[in-house]
Amino acid sequence: QGGTGPKLAPNPLSAAALTAYVRKPMGMPAYSAKVMSDAELADVRAYLATVPAPPPVNSIPLLNQ
Hints:
The chain is mostly helical.
């Protein structure tokens, strides 16, 4: 969420979009298929898809004082 990278979770990029970003990112070194295969990237994306959305701010009592 810092500005240059993609949103990782919840609702991450599609597997194809994540792979394209990792192979040719902006502002950081690329990961070649020798470093991380497309299958491994798909596994990372599948994990990211399991991260739940945070609760709404208004449901957190400490933040509503």
